[in-house]
Specification:
Elements lengths: L3 E3 L3 E6 L2 E6 L4 E6 L3 H12 L10 H9 L3 E3 L3 H6 L23 E6 L14 H6 L7 E5 L8 H17 L3 E6 L4 H13 L3 E6 L22 H6 L3 E9 L15 E5 L6 H11 L5 E6 L21 H14 L2 E7 L10 H16 L2
Parallel strand pairs: 6-7, 6-8, 8-13, 9-10, 9-12, 10-11, 12-13
Antiparallel strand pairs: 1-5, 2-3, 3-4
């Protein structure tokens, strides 16, 4: 195994029988009994000033230390400095907002991973690309740290925990992907916070139900079947907007929740479509997930899975504004922005405009 370093943002103090560790970035205070393996390892590393670790520590204990972000795998230090897989901002001229100092308004949470994506484009650069076009005044908690020990579930739960910290401050979290699989964990966190089922409004070129005929459709979580997973959760309804014609599906099997679909060329029906949903599900909180490939690739092709057709940036912005006016939106993500070959990233620019428009609603 490789060596490790203690998280430089961890403030460690001796409190007699306990070792107190404050993670100021997360706004979290951890306490461990001195006789616990975690406390013993931290003290051992401090005494030896070493990137190594005691021989008697188990893999499970190492993973726990990493998941708590008390130690960081050494060979990822360069990635962390560059902000590719990091708990810090990619750009030094932006201010990072610690969770303990979050105020009312929106808070950006970066999910710079693409665990569950298939294809030759990578969306882990999405948060970095979108931030290039965001104004500095928006609260930004940075990217959620990713480590080699992380499974998709481990990482997803860490993103969800960051959303939980935002909810404690009554702020509005917007997660920047990364691939679309992260939406499952974000949606579940919002359900937990609302203590009730909620609706999902989903902008996408694809229906993301995966192979709807397959009994094993839910065996693995992918960006292409994340909505199928959410449909099995505590979901009041699913409303999909911007789907291409070949993505409109009729469900042969009973679904656990009502599903409404609006094709990309039916934007003139949007108001009536939304009104119908409100009539059937009055006062239901909603989570909003925006896969940026709902846009026409002739306008913005910096997406993970471009598909011919789609809506333009103004239409998307107007629809999202309308949703915020008519629904109680309790959380949101924008996913699958990729890098640009030309230097100008139109998908990221439109995503940034959406975020700023939502931020304006809080001021």
């Amino acid at each position: 195994m490789e060596g490790f370093v203690i998280n430089s943002k961890a403030f460690i103090s001796d409190e007699g029988k306990y070792l107190s560790i404050k993670l100021s970035y997360e706004g979290v205070l951890l306490k461990f009994r001195k006789k616990s393996m975690i406390a013993e390892l931290i003290l051992w590393m401090l005494d030896h000033e070493s990137v190594d670790y005691p021989e008697n520590i188990t893999i499970r204990e190492l993973r726990e230390l990493i998941s708590l972000r008390l130690i960081i795998p050494n060979r990822f230090s360069l990635c962390i400095e560059q902000g590719v897989t990091s708990e810090a901002r990619s750009y030094s001229d932006f201010n990072i907002t610690n969770f303990e100092s979050i105020s009312l308004g929106i808070v950006i949470i970066g999910s710079a991973v693409d665990y569950a994506q298939v294809g030759d484009r990578t969306s882990f650069v999405g948060p970095k690309e979108i931030r290039k076009y965001l104004r500095n005044s928006i609260q930004d908690s940075g990217n959620v740290a990713w480590f080699t020990s992380d499974s998709l579930v481990t990482y997803g739960l860490r993103v969800a925990y960051c959303m939980y910290l935002c909810h404690l401050k009554n702020s509005f979290p917007i997660v920047l992907g990364g691939d679309h699989s992260i939406t499952k964990f974000c949606f579940q966190e919002v359900v937990n916070n609302c203590k009730s089922s909620i609706g999902l409004i989903h902008f996408d070129a694809h229906n993301d139900f995966g192979d709807t005929e397959s009994e094993s459709n839910l065996d693995n979580l992918l960006h292409s079947n994340v909505i199928a997973h959410i449909s099995q959760m505590d979901c009041e309804f699913i409303a999909q907007i911007g789907l291409r014609k070949n993505q409109i599906i009729s469900f042969n099997k009973p679904s656990s929740c009502p599903i409404y679909q609006l094709q990309d060329n039916e934007s003139s029906r949007f108001s009536k479509y939304v009104g119908n949903i409100i009539q059937k599900h009055p006062k239901v909180p909603v989570y909003l997930s925006v896969d940026i490939d709902c846009l026409d690739p002739e306008i913005a092709d910096e997406v993970a899975a471009p598909l011919k057709g789609g809506i333009n940036g103004e239409q998307l912005l107007d629809m999202i504004q309308n949703i915020f006016e008519r629904f109680n939106v309790v959380g949101m993500d924008i996913v699958e922005v990729c890098n640009s070959d030309s230097g100008v990233n139109n998908a990221a620019k439109i995503a940034a405009r959406i975020i700023e428009a939502i931020d304006d609603r809080f001021h």
